Amino acid sequence: MITYPNAKINLGLNIVEKRPDGYHNLETVFYPINLQDALEVTKLDSKDEEYKLKVSGVPIEGEPENNLVVKAYRLLKKDYPDMAPIDIHMYKHIPTGAGLGGGSADAAFMIKLLNKKFELNLSTEKMEEYAATLGADCAFFIQNKPVFASGIGNIFESINLSLKGYYIVLVKPDIFVSTKDAFANITPTKPSHSLKEIIRMPVETWRATMKNDFEESVFQKFPEIAAIKDKLYDMGAVYASMSGSGSSVYGIFREQVEFVDEVFSGCFCRQRALE
């Protein structure tokens, strides 16, 4: 059985307050985009192994047991011990360390795939509950619809937002942005414009009001990332932003854009129609 986990972008990202536990409360909009990994699961013939994991495509670091798809399998296996050993093949296309939620998507889609394959009859709410234990934004990918996210990015509120008819150009330079770098100049503040109000306005107005608070810190340390955003606007984007804490940057366009690979040579670059 095969499934295709997709990425998401952040539309706006406001760091609103620091919590007693050291984390920060934020407000953002998660929007799914058509940039996908591929995840295939088959039953293992051998009973000697709990699972096998093969990863191809974009290289990812770390031991197999720390991969979120393996953690998702083990999480369900704990409650459903009769689940058979599995052979997992994951083709990574979504770049890592990009602010696109690729790992979280893989984990959530793994839960959905196992639910279907082994006929576990889990409700949407129960799958979201499992996913939430694996990562703050993981549960978003269970329903995979636009949401207003708050808390640490784990509290979701459905919104009515469609960008169908627009195109997205997504660019990720070969730069890793650490959490420390992203938070370097952050002073938590309530935004002057509510994201819930901003998304009701035409996309063309977002440039003046929709902000990603991480950009100030990240652009200061990595001017190459800021230059990508500027270039997307030069090319005619109606809105451009860094996604999450980076390092990917996207531009939203009214029409398909030519020669994006040439313009951003040396970077991961993809263009997709938005749904």
Summarize the structure.
This protein has ten helices and twelve strands. It has helices at 68-79, 102-117, 124-132, 140-143, 179-183, 195-198, 206-209, 214-221, 223-234, 260-263; strands at 2-3, 6-18, 24-36, 38-43, 51-57, 86-92, 147-150, 155-158, 167-172, 239-242, 249-253, 268-273. The model has no long low-confidence stretch (mean pLDDT 95).
Describe the structure.
This protein is α+β, with helices and mostly antiparallel strands and 275 residues long. The chain folds into two domains: 157 residues, Ribosomal Protein S5, domain 2; 107 residues, GHMP kinase, C-terminal domain (Alpha-Beta Plaits, 2-Layer Sandwich), CATH 3.30.70.890. A hairpin with a 6-residue loop joins β10 and β11. The chain is globular, with a radius of gyration of 19 Å.
